[in-house]
TrEMBL record:
Bilayer disposition of the protein: Multi-pass membrane protein
Organism expressing this protein natively: Leptospira interrogans serovar Copenhageni str. LT2050
Phylogenetic placement of the source organism: Bacteria, Pseudomonadati, Spirochaetota, Spirochaetia, Leptospirales
Family, as annotated: Belongs to the ABC-4 integral membrane protein family. LolC/E subfamily.
Main location as per UniProt: membrane
Protein name: Efflux ABC transporter, permease protein
Superkingdom classification of source: Bacteria
Residue intervals of the ABC3 transporter permease C-terminal domain: 140-263
Any one annotated GO CC term: plasma membrane protein complex
Signal peptide start-end: none
Keyword Glycosyltransferase: no
Length: 270
């Protein structure tokens, strides 16, 4: 069974459809029509006379689009109502592995003239929203890392300008340019690591708070729930690695310039 309708029944039963001229409504649709269990509803497709159906069940799936607009009846009765005897407009197939839906759809298209869609193709507009969401998220991440990188760059530049005398002393006692570069590069990395760890902790605490807040989605009719937040370690690790990469790039430029300074240039500048 594609949809376990019996699991979503809140009043009546699915089995009662077999009595004939029975219908099962979504709870949202029942409320919109002002009808309840065992009430009679008259249906017509415009091709046949109005036919009375008794509401023998009410379901709630949690999907507002389904609960507000779907009704179930016996196939033979629906075919008679729509003057499409022996015809089926849609067939849904459940796969054990949903990731093979595109492959299976392609195979079936090659042997059938019917319109066949994978679940990804049937919900392409829905997936487009996620792609847009990902693009916005990546753009925001890049902007935040850029701002943080410029912050570290400016801090190191200020420190280097303040420590020119010390740099001159280090160079005069035998420190090589690479050793001076390493000193300031490590200083930048310390700033990045401490900032990254504090950011991870604050982000974790904010996510905990968001997860506890009540959340109502207009697409779902199951009432208020909670925002679903992923706390997968891979997400935090990825964020930390990205921050370290930005820190390394931002620290390298001023640290390299500090390593190139010579005692003579520093004295002349003083």
């Amino acid at each position: 069974m594609i949809t376990p309708l019996a699991d979503y029944i809140i009043e009546g039963s699915v089995e009662s459809l077999s009595a004939g001229n029975r219908i099962v409504l979504g709870d949202g649709l029942a409320k919109l029509l002002g009808l309840g269990l065992n009430k009679t509803i008259w249906l017509t497709s415009g091709l046949q006379e109005k036919t009375p159906f008794r509401i023998s069940g009410i379901f709630r799936s949690g999907n507002k689009a389904l609960d507000d607009g779907i009704a179930y009846g016996l196939l033979s009765e629906v075919q008679l109502l729509t003057a499409q005897s022996g015809m089926i407009t849609d067939i849904a197939v459940r796969l054990k592995d949903v990731n093979r839906s595109l492959q299976k759809a392609g195979e079936w298209k090659s042997i059938s003239d019917d319109k066949i869609l994978s679940w990804e193709e049937a919900n392409s507009n829905f997936f487009a929203i996620f792609k847009l969401q990902d693009a916005i998220r990546y753009s925001m991440t890049a902007a935040i890392l850029t701002v943080a990188g410029f912050g570290i760059y400016n801090i190191l530049n200020v420190i280097i300008n303040q420590k020119k005398r010390e740099i001159a002393i280090l160079r005069s006692i035998g420190y090589r340019p690479n050793e001076v570069l390493t000193i300031f590069l490590l200083q930048g990395l310390i700033l990045g690591i401490s900032g990254g760890l504090i950011g991870l902790l604050l982000g974790f605490l904010v996510c905990l708070r968001i997860e506890s807040l009540p959340f109502t989605n207009p697409l779902f009719s199951a009432g208020a729930g909670n925002m679903v937040i992923s706390f997968a370690p891979a997400i935090y690790m990825q964020a930390f690695i990205q921050s370290m990469a930005a820190t390394l790039i931002a620290s390298w430029i001023p640290a390299r310039s500090a390593g190139k300074l010579s005692p003579i240039e520093i004295i002349r500048g003083e």
